Each structure stands twice: as structure tokens, then as C-alpha cells.
Amino acid sequence: MRLRLEARPEPSRAMLWLSPLLAALLAAAGGGVVFALLGYDPWAALGMLFLAPLSSLDGLTELGLKATPLLLCALGIAIGVRANVWNIGAEGQLTMGAIAGGGVALAFGGAGHWWVLPLMLLAGVAGGAAWGALPALLRTRFNAHEILTTLMLNYVAIQILGWLVHGPWIDPEGFNFPQTRMFEADALLPVLVEGSRLHAGFLLALLAVPLGWLLLARTVTGFRLRTVGQAPAAARYAGFSASGAVWFSLVLSGALAGLAGVSEAAGPVGQLQPSMSPGYGFAAIIVAFLGRLNPVGILFASLLMALLYLGGEQLQVSMQLPLAATGTIQGMLLFFLLATDVFIDQRLVLAEARHA
Amino acid sequence: MLDGFALLALLVATLRAATPLLLAGFGELVAERAGVLNLGVEGMMLVGAATGFIATAATGNPLLGLLAAALAGAAMALLFGLLTLTLRANQVACGLALTIFGIGLSALIGLPWQGTPITGLATVLWPGLDAASPLVQQFMLLDPVLWLALAAPLLVSAFLYRSRPGLVLRAVGESHDVAHALGYSVLRVRYAAVLFGGAMSGLGGAYLSLVYTPMWTENMVAGRGWIALALVVFSAWKPGWLALGALLFGFVTIAQFHAGALGLDISPHLLTMLPYLATVLVLVLISRDATRLKLNAPAALGKPFTATG
Amino acid sequence: MPQGATPLMHGQVLPPRLALTGIVKRYGAMLANDAVTLSVAPGEIHALLGENGAGKSTLMKIVYGVVAPDAGTIAWEGRPVAIPDPNAARALGIGMVFQHFSLFETLTVAENIALGLGTRQPLAALTAEIRRVAAQYGLAVEPGRHVHHLSVGERQRVEILRCLLQRPRLLILDEPTSVLTPQEAEGLFAMLRRLAEEGCSILYISHKLEEIRALCTAATVLRAGQVVARCDPRIETAESLAEMMIGGGLARTSRPPARWTGPPCLVVDGLTLAADEPFGTTLREVALELRAGEILGIAGVAGNGQKELLAALAGERRAPGARILLQGRPIGVLGPAERRDRGLHFIPEERLGRGAVAEYSLAENALLTRLNPTTAPRGLLDLRAVNALAARLITRFGVRCAGPAAQGRSLSGGNMQKFIVGREIDAGPRVLLAAHPTWGVDIGAALAIRQALLDLAAAGAGVLVVSEDLDELLEIADRIAVLSGGRLSPPVPVSQTSVEAIGLLMGGAEGVAHAVAA
User: Fold this and answer.
1) Is residue C219 domain-shared with residue C291, that is, in the same domain?
2) Which chain C residues have a beta carbon less than 8 Å from that of A228?
3) Is the ipTM of this complex over 0.85?
4) What b-and-e string marks burial along A250-277, b requiring 16 or more CB atoms within 10 Å of the CB?
5) Residue C366 lies in a domain
6) C351 and C271 in one domain?
């Protein structure tokens, strides 16, 4: 007798939502093993990673702060994946959003115009959308696959940012540090909780959740996108445009990532630096899958991932654990998730030996 | 101006820059010809680079380092195989997971070894050659792994087109259902191909940390895994074209270092973009003819296999 | 004397070549084979007869080692054997020609045969061997050619050659004539008879009754996984065989006595379209005229441009140079949704993945071709209206399912097809295109679908049916045209043509258009 996978007649709804929890537990257990192997007390480390950040108001606002870019990027990625469009370029689109919004801040900030901040946000959205439109053009016009082009454009965007902050946009009074001058007050997002760093971008991200849900579940556009992703031949038969889906999802996810980028620049960072994101654009891929490609699920998944970021920083400060440890746990999280997801459509059965 | 010797130096440098791409690219080519799309090349290269470096630093023997890197790459590929072949999970998502995991894991295990000096791979000096001569020094830069990488196109071609296991591998990549119906073990063939791909990626990564740089820094593969993947598409799954593509990219990588020497005053950031932009360009040029791609791509590429019955 | 045993001249009894006893195979709740017992004598051409889903293919996969039985025994020439995989089957001397060919498109004929043989013979020697056997049995095939260049008939020859090179003692053929013209089928039968004379047993799977009566010397009839009859088909009639197969009288569609045909509702002229897929067919100067109230049948062997023609008519592909008129108005530049809005609907060949989405509920599947101001006012889905539509389709067309929320993949092929056909008919089309509308569905559903098409035409719509099943076209169509090599022959009334004449056209016989009107 041995175990065998068998297709379920209907996908298990319980397993659909149980799987991320199971994966999180397994990843935590895996993290504990890693900590122990590195010679740290696994219980103390896990406690610091998952519980400590939640025990103070400060921690909670920081959680919202870190969840903001993750949520925005993941929503866009998820809408793309539902249309079978794989945007691995959120990191680059985020960077371009920060550059475009930051450019506006550097050009017009400081004079007290009310329109500076709205213009920055618009520029950020446009910058990200343009960086998403490029692979959409390459895919629809030249058939170049978006996984590779969006990924390559990440490196390009980061080099553009590097060139700007090392060269043309460098702070003249900054002792040659590769960064721009700090943005003026009129170019910064308002803070939501006094004394914290949580800014209005969090509200924009929260607003995007119901809108994303509405788009996917209740609109004709969303139905078309899902059909293109789920069954391309059926979409062709129905007359739903595949290149339309590519354009829509890449531009939309680029715009959301661009918003995340400008929110970082006009929020906690307050200037442009050589790197505007500790890998939010990549972690958002995990968030999208963890949230079941469903906007509501993604909200919770982004909070969990933010916790992992926060806890990782705490571990680095108080236990001198390398930040890479959280990267490892992130990777394990996605792995375990993909493994447990197998049991949504399949189940284990005991198989009799062949030719009994 | 470039004289003959400088040209030779440029050629040697190009070959060295192309070696990791050749190794990882041919590993992925074989995996894809068997019908498996493993987007985790970058992650496998990174883990290979870190493991190879650590093993070399710990044992002092770069050959052991290479062996460890190949095994580590294969171990990563095994993980991928378990998920995509045995559990039939989505290959694209699993490949991304493998890369994200590999970035974190390599950074974690490599951290204590950052800045450690190692002795790289030595070339055996042929008797009678003068080690002080600049020409011989150039020759000594051509190490055994590089020769292996240069032989890869021939070896892989011979395997794919002249051997029976190669025929079976191509058949499995063409249609797993037919191969299964004829009695071939699709999973066994695919596991072998994926593990080979992982080992080659590991070697490619180790070449970077043991020979090319030689040192370990976080995320040092810097997108070469993705470029290798793009090159496989560029080659239309043909060994000759893959070799050509890898050499071309080796040259582009080297050209950025020589731009300064040619008197061009361009920001290093803009030069660093070159290989990535070139990749996009190459993808655009090669993918334009959709029919050609469809005709050459292994028909079962990326599709999960379920044995019926 | 045990069944299937053959007396030799000197009185000795030879054991059956293959004897299956009590074979059981269960897939989930479905019993595909229920205690099947079957025996094939040496040199016998034995028919395995049954409807779609009766368990024929499962049983043959068990014999060929592709599927493991849950219970039962297999005896080969009197000895009990286990057949764990196809290699073991081949080692015993069993060869199989699959219904959907098991060939690798991008490999050569010789490479394909090498893979099927499992020998270590060098390709050069194998090529010579292929030529020799091909000549011996009159199977013209060039070993160096790539399979994707071959016609369907040639591919079948490659499959058969691959089996013959192993000197099989039992050859299994699964619906081999479904891809052949009537003339090609005659050639195949001659070859099979010769093989049988040489002592090779043949297991012939089919649901085509006339063909079995002409070829086979014994028959086992399966229904719902069980053996329901054994007979000598030569002394049975097609009706009696059909009764055994479906367990009751053969129902027929009722056809309105006199057919009214109106003005042309779909006119196509000068439709030339290059293949968009590597192994596709180019359409050349296709012209047709479909009249309101008629059913126009398009016959032809698969791969002769059927997919391309339907894609061009439905709007999935645009043919800029062609003139396509729907009720007098040009629609050539419109896409599928716009053509649908103007009354042109399409039932595609593939059900799950094209006509419907496996992972969608029936309600969402109904929406696929029925997005309109009722179901989606102002771009927002009205879920209540969508559910009501799905519920109406389910009741009106007798779709057996758990309701509008049931997933597409939970339906049987026949019920899914009834839902898709119903969805398009319910929309009230002026023109309906249907590709292989009854392919792979059970007889009951096929009957219902054919009747629905006849009723739609009777109500004044123009119906164009593309099918490889000539019998079906002869039953429901008013006129038949043949697609061959991307060219469409002029249509002729069904009453003025014959199977032979259509067969000649299917084979691509040029300049024999006049023969159709024989």
C-alpha cells in the first residue's frame, strides 16, 4: 500500500483558505529550525519575529506602514495572475513611481502649493504605469514574454534611480552621499497617527481592496480578465481580447506599484535613495499567492508579510540575526504554500499495490 | 587602441563572462527539452555560488567547492521537482519561489563568509611554458570549468540528437502523454533533466564566486540566471544558438568595463543596464516570429503531467 | 470446448491468444469495467463493440498495460500473465494503434518507430527494416519525414508499421477508421485480413456497425462496463447489433417532411487564410452560401481546414480579403462577440476549455456568450439574472447537473454539450455554426442535440455543421460540401450523392466534383 494523489471531484473550499495558514505554520517551524541551526534560541527568535511587533501601538502603525506597499503591489500582481499575466516587475515599477513622484517633489516642492502632493501621486502612478506598459507593448506587439521583460526592467529601473541619485539629482549639500535632498513638508504624505510614521498612503491601499474585489468579482472587465487567464481558448471563442487583458493588467499593476513607490518616497523615506524598497515588489508575489489572488485575502497576507519584515528588523537589532533569515522564511512560506495548495484540487488516497 | 594582445585579452574575458551563462543555460536547455520550465535558475545559481564558496573556503580545495555547488544546485532542483513533478504544482510559481528562496538562503549561509579570501581554481601549467609571459598568463585564465562550458554545446548536442536517452528526453518534452503510453517513465526522465539543470546552474554560480570574482557577496549572480533563461528562448532550444547567445552576452558584459578604456564617459549605472536592456532587445527580436517559437518550443513545456489510469 | 479455442487439424486444441477473466476497473464512483470476460482466438478479427463510455478504451488500456486493473486475470496463450506496462505488453507480442495517435509531431517517422520499439538498433538499420515491412504490406511511408508533415491517414500507417515491426501476435486498433476516407478504410481492411491470415489476432474497437459486419469474425458487446452479448457479427444485422449495444431500439431523429429554405443568411466568398499554427491548414478561395432553414454539412477528414474555416466564420480570426455577409451585411472585420450580437453563434469542437470553462460555474459559463444589458447592465454583473439564465438553460435542455452553481468540470461530456448547444440555441441565432456537435457524447444526448439542430433549422435559422461523422451528416444535413486541403467543394443535396462520391472528395481527388452528383 502506498499514498497516491487523486483529483477531487470539486476543489476543496476549506483547503483553499486552510492552506495559507498551514503554510505559515510550516514556514514558522522551518524558520525555527533555521534559527536553531544558526545557534539561536528558536522560541525566543520566533516570539520576536511574530509576536513582539504586535505588542505596541508603535508596532501596529509600523505594521500598517510596511503593509502599504506590499498590499498595493500584491493587488496588481494578483489581478495580473488571474489573467495569466505574470508581472515580476513590481519592484521596478515601484522604483519608477518613486522616481516620477520624487521628481515632482524636487521640482515643485517647498513653495507651499496645494497641488504638489496630488501631482506627485499622479506622477508616481503614471511612472509605474508606464513601466508596466512597456512590457505590455513588448508582449502584445512583439510576443516577448512578460516574465522575463518585467524582470529585466527591474534592474534597469534600479540603475536609473542609482544614476539619478549619484548624478543629476544628488543633494548638493549632502556630503556626496548618493541621495536627493529631503522633500519639503508640502511634498510629504500626511501622517495618520500622531508620533508614528503611518501615512495617508495606507488609506489609499485600503481603498484599493474593495475596488479590486469589485473589479474581479462583479464587473464584465474582471470576468473577461479571469476568462483570458483561466481558459484562453474560451476567451478567444467568447471574443475577449487577450492583448487587452495584458495591457489592462500590466498597466494597472504598474500603476498600483507606482503608487506604492511614491508613497514610500513621500512617506517614511522622505527623499530618493539608491534603493527605495527592501524587496517589496518580490515579496508581494508571495503576498498575492498567500492571499489566494483574492483582494480580501491579500489584505491579511500583506499584514502577515509586513509582520515578517518588522520582526526581521527586530531580530537584526536585538539578536544580531541577519536580515537574510527573513528572506529565507519568505521563500519557505511560498514553497510550503504551493505544496499545501496541491491539496485544494487533489487529495491523498491509499492506493493498493498495482496488480494486487 | 586595441592591439592583438588586447583583443586576445578581450576574447579571454568574454569567454570567462560567458561561462556561467553557458553552464546554467545548457542545464536549463536540457530541462526545458524534457518539458520542464524551471524559472528558479537565479536561485539555484546563488545557492551554488554560496555553497561552492563556503566549501572551497572550508576545505581549501576548489574542486570540492565545485562538487558541492553542483550538489547544492541539484538539491534545489530536487525541491522544485518534488513540487512540480510529484505534486504537480504550477511550474511558473514554483520557479519564482525557488528564486526567492535561493536569494534568502544563499545570503543567510554566505553571510559569515563575506570577505573571506580563497584560492580560486588553478590551471595546470603545461611544462615548458613560461609563467611570467603575459600570453601564458592569459592562457592560464582559461580554467577547466571554462573548457567544460565551451564543450557543453557539443556534448549536449551529441546527447540530444545522437543518443537514445536524448531521443527519449526530447520525446518526453514533446508529448508526455504519448511517451507515457509508449511505456516511458515521464517522471524519471524529467527528474533527471531537472537535476542536471540544477547541477549545471550550481556550477555556473560557483564559477562566479570561485573564479570570476572570486569572492562571495549577497545576490552576486545579479540576474544572470534570468539572462540564461532568456537565452534559452533566444536559442529556440537549439544548442548552437544558445552557445552563440551566451558568448554575445559575455561580450556585452565585458564591453561595459571597456567603455571607459575606449574614452567613453558614461555613468557606470547606465553601463550596468546594458546586459539587461540587451536581454529585452534579444527577446523582442526573437519572439516576433510567434510561429517559429511555437514550432521549436518543446510542446509539453510547462505543462503538468498526470499519468492517467 | 472453451470459447475462442481453435481446433487444429490434428485434433489438438490451441489456447486462445488472449483471455480476460473478471476484469474490474473503477474510477472513483464509476465502474468502467465490471467483471469483463473476453477471449480472442489466434488469427481471429474480434470486434469490441460499444457506445462511447461503455468501457472499451479502458479495457484495451488494461490489455496494453497502460492502466492496471483492480481485479481479474489475463491469460496469454493459456498462461496467466501480468502486464505492468506497455513494454511488457510489447514483449508478449501485443501491438496497439491508438485512436488519438501516439506519435511525436516534431520527430521523424523512423525516430517515432524507434521510440515505440524500444530497440537499440541503429537508425540506419531500422530505416531499411521500415522500408522492407512497409513494402511487404503496401503501407507507403517515408521514414525520414517529420510526422507533422504527414496526413492523418499516413500517421495511422506509421502507427501500424510500428506495431508490425514488432511482429505482433495481437494487434489492437481503437476506432481506426474515424480518421480515414471510406476508400482508405477499404485499404486498411484488406491489410488487416491479410495479417489475420498470417495468424495475427486482431482486436477491433468500433461503434460503426456496418464496418464490423464486413470485417470481423467475432464480437463482444460492452454496455456500461459489462459484457452484454457475444456474437458472430457476420450473421447479425446492423439493427440487432445496435440493440445489443444500446439495450433497446434505435431511436431516430424526426425530420420535418418538407424543408423550407429561405434566402441566403450567410454568404462567404474568396476566403483565403494562411495557417496561424505550425501544423495548420491554409484555406484557399473558400466560397459558400448558407440559406435560412437549411442544414449545410461540411464533411472531411480532420486537419483539412475545419478549424481554420470555423475560426474565420466565427470571427476568432479575421480574413481581410474575404467577403463574409451575414444577412446581407458585411461582418468580415468584426470579432466573435460582435458577430454574435448580430445573430451568428458558434458551438466549438472542444467543450471544456473553449466552449466552457472547467473551473467556472454553469452560471459563469452561461455568461461567456451571453453578456448583454440583462446579465451585465452598465458593465456590472447581475448575478441574479445570470443565475436565472443558467437555470433556464438547464431546465429547457435537460442538462443533468447540481444546478447553476455546479462547476463545468463536474458535468459529463454529453450534459456539458447539451448546456453549450442550449446556450447558443436559446440566444435565438440567425446562423449557427456547429463543430462535431455529437462527438464523444452518449447516444441519448447525441439524439437530443441533433433534434435541437433540426428544430432550429425548421424555425428558420441557417445551420452549418462540420463533422467527420459522415453518417451524422447524411442523417441531418440538406446539402453536403467537402473540405479537403483547405478547399471546399461545391455543396450538393444529400439526396443526390453517395458515401463513395463524398469519400473520393475527402481523399482530395481533384477534378471529380462531378462525381459527387453521381
Assistant:
1) no
2) none
3) yes
4) bbbbbbbbbbbbbbbbbbbbbbbbbebb
5) no
6) yes
Enumerate the residues of chain A whose CB falls inside 8 A of the CB of residue B80.
Answer: none
Point out the domain boundary residue: C246, C281, C297.
C246
Chain A contact for C84, CB < 8 A? yes
Same domain as C352, residue C220: no
**C269 and C344 in a common domain:** yes
Q: Under a CB-based contact definition with an 8 Å cutoff, are residues C478 and C493 in contact?
A: yes
Separation CA A182–CA A179 (nearest Å): 9
C447 is a domain residue: yes
Model confidence at B25: pLDDT above 90: yes
User: Is C28 a residue whose pLDDT tops 80?
Assistant: no
d(C-alpha C393, C-alpha C423), whole Å: 6
Alpha helices in B114-175 (DSSP H): 134-140, 144-162, 164-174
Interface contact flag, B309 C66, Cβ < 8 Å: yes
Residue C17, min C-alpha distance to chain A (Å): 21
Same domain for C279 and C333?
A: yes
Domain carrying residue C341: 264-358+429-516
Average pLDDT over every residue of A325-342: 88
Q: What is the CATH number of the domain that holds B17?
A: 1.10.3470
The Cα–Cα gap between C295 and C125 comes to 53
Q: What is the model's pTM? A: 0.88
d(CA B76, CA C459): 64
Residue among B168, B178, B308 minimizing CB distance to C102: B178
Q: Are the beta carbons of B181 and C115 separated by less than 8 Å? A: no
Residue of C nearest to A242 (CA): C316
What's the gap in Å between the CA of B187 and the closest CA on chain C? Answer: 15
Distance CA A190, CA A201 (A): 9
Residue B309 has its nearest CB partner, among C61, C98, C278, at C61
Say if strands C18-27 and C71-76 run parallel, antiparallel, or are unpaired: antiparallel
For A2-50, write each residue's pLDDT tens digit: 677 777 777 888 888 899 999 999 999 998 998 888 888 899 988 888 8
Q: Is B169 on the interface with C (CB under 8 A)?
A: no
Query: Is A238 within 8 Å of A95 (Cβ atoms)?
Result: no
What digits encode the pLDDT tens for the residues B106-146? 998 998 888 888 877 666 556 666 767 777 777 777 788 89
Instruction: Give the closest-approach CA distance of A191 to chain B in angstroms.
Output: 33
Tell me whether residues A239 and C315 touch, CB distance under 8 A: yes
Chain C positions touching A354 (Cβ under 8 A) are 68, 84
Q: What is the pLDDT of residue C2?
A: 43
How far off is chain C from B298, nearest CA to CA, in Å?
9
Number of domains in chain C: 2
The number of domains in chain B is 1
Sign of dihedral through CA atoms B234, B238, B241, B242? positive
When scoring B178, B180, B294, B295 by the number of chain C Cβ atoms within 10 A, the one with the most, hence best to mutate, is: B178
Burial of C328 (0-12, 13-18, 19+ CB in 10 A): exposed
- pLDDT for position A254: 98
Q: What is the rounded average pLDDT for all residues in chain C?
A: 87
CB contact under 8 A, A219 and C340: no
The residue of chain B nearest to residue C121, with distances taken between CA atoms, is B164
Question: Which of B164, B175, B182 faces C86 most closely, judged by CB atoms?
Answer: B182
Here the CATH number for the domain that contains residue C222 is: 3.40.50.300
Residue A182, Ramachandran bin (φ over 0: left; ψ between -120 and 50: alpha; else beta) = beta
Residue B305 lies inside a defined structural domain of this protein? no
Q: Check if the beta carbon of residue B45 is closer than 8 Å to that of residue B24.
A: yes
The answer, for A17 touching chain B at a CB cutoff of 8 Å, is no
Mean pLDDT (chain B, rounded): 88
| C178 within domain boundaries | yes
* Cross-chain residue pair C70–A352, CB shorter than 8 Å: yes
Tens digit of pLDDT for each residue in A260-281?
999 999 999 999 999 999 999 9
